[in-house]
Amino acid sequence: MDPGLCGYCRRYPRRGLGGRGRTADFCDHVWAVDEKGREVTCARLDEADQVVHAAYGSAFPGFDVAGLGRDISRALAEINPLRHSLTALGGRLDEEVAAARERAETAEQAREKAVAEAAAAEARAEAAESAAADAEERAGEAESRATEAERRAAADRQQAQQAHTDRIAALGKAEALGEQVHRLGQGAERAAERLEDLTAQVSARAGEAEAAHARARSLESDLRELSERHTNEVAHLRDRHEQALADLRARDEDARVQLRTEHDRRIAALRHEHETALTAVRHEVSELTSAQARDQATANEARATAASAGRDRDSVSGRLTELREGILTALAEQPADLPPRLRTLLDATRPGGAHT
Question: Rounded to an integer, what distance in angstroms lies between the CA atom of residue 206 and that of residue 165?
Fold first, then answer.
């Protein structure tokens, strides 16, 4: 026992010097104020205990204020850590929920990024389709030019055929004129000159026809070459477009599947972590709640004990007051039967005794 603490409650330090320069045995703590306005201190409580013990002996136990204080302090010491633990647990739960929300937002951002990449891939595919459409348009223009070349070649062939027909007609005319020359025998010189002129015209027409045939053959060759080149170019462009589109779709599908799988995996992991943490927290909260309920019950019992002790103290105080007043009255009167009256007062104020 600490010699510096109060000799009654064992909780507060002793006050300064008492009477005759000695250290007081009790503290200055005021526990209550009685009906007469006087302070109830440890010194008065100790004096009351001594009076009760002198009057009743060991039949009436003293009121252990120190024990009650220790019980209350012990209950508070057990409740306060639980309160701090609940506060820390609530903060931890808030942090876990905030972290889970942050991870969910990160996963949502990743999903939005994947959607944006898919949209970009679709845009690239549309651009490739547009390029293919442009290539087809250029191919159509090349076909138009080829058609125009064919039309010109046909016109040249028609012109060559016309020249050949004219040549045949001229030859027929020449033969007819020769027959006329031989048959008629007149104007041989003029017929010969005319024949030479016609022959020159026929030769010129024949040269033009040969040149037209040559141009037609050249145009046909160019047309075939242009058509083959155009066909090859269109087929190559179509193959490249289809291959690029297939590659883009395959990469896009792979990216979508991978992102969807990764997103589902992350969501499942986050959900599992959250459920595990929530289950652990609920279990811990349940245990802490049970412990708090037990501590609350202990505190309630301590309060009930303190209230009962207070009622007992009030009862004892009333009896002591009654005893003191009876003794003072008896001492003031000083009759001959003073000792029997004192015994009667003591018997009347004894616990369980009857008042006279």
Answer: 10
Q: From CA 133, how far away is CA 127, in angstroms rounded?
A: 10
pLDDT in tens, 61-115: 555 555 655 666 676 677 777 778 778 887 888 888 888 888 888 888 888 888 8
Token duo for residue 68: 């009650």
Tokens representing 205 are 């027409």
C-alpha closest to that of 270 among 89, 109, 107, 114: 107
74 CB-near residues (< 8 Å, 6+ apart): none
pLDDT digits (tens, 9 = 90+) for 218-231: 777 877 787 788 78
Q: How many whole angstroms separate alpha carbon 50 and alpha carbon 322?
A: 16
Q: Give the span between the Cα atoms of 58 and 194, in whole angstroms.
A: 179
Residue 317: name the closest of 26, 54, 44 by CA: 44
Distance between CA atoms of residues 169 and 198, nearest Å: 11
Model pTM greater than 0.90? no
27 vs 44: CA distance, rounded Å: 11
What would the DSSP string read from start to end of 82-98? HHHHHHHHHHHHHHHHH
